[in-house]
Here is the input.
Amino acid sequence: MALITASILYVILDMEYSRFGLIRLDAKNSVLVDMAESMK
Here is the structure.
């Protein structure tokens, strides 16, 4: 049970901070960077 909970927590945090984790969401990152640039 602890292994499942830890795994789920790791995946959630890895997707939340996708720049630093093993699961890389480069498309999501580029959308966020473009949006930040358009707000300037």
Notes: The longest helix spans residues 2-16. The chain is about 70% helix and 0% strand. The mean pLDDT is 83. The radius of gyration is 14 Å.
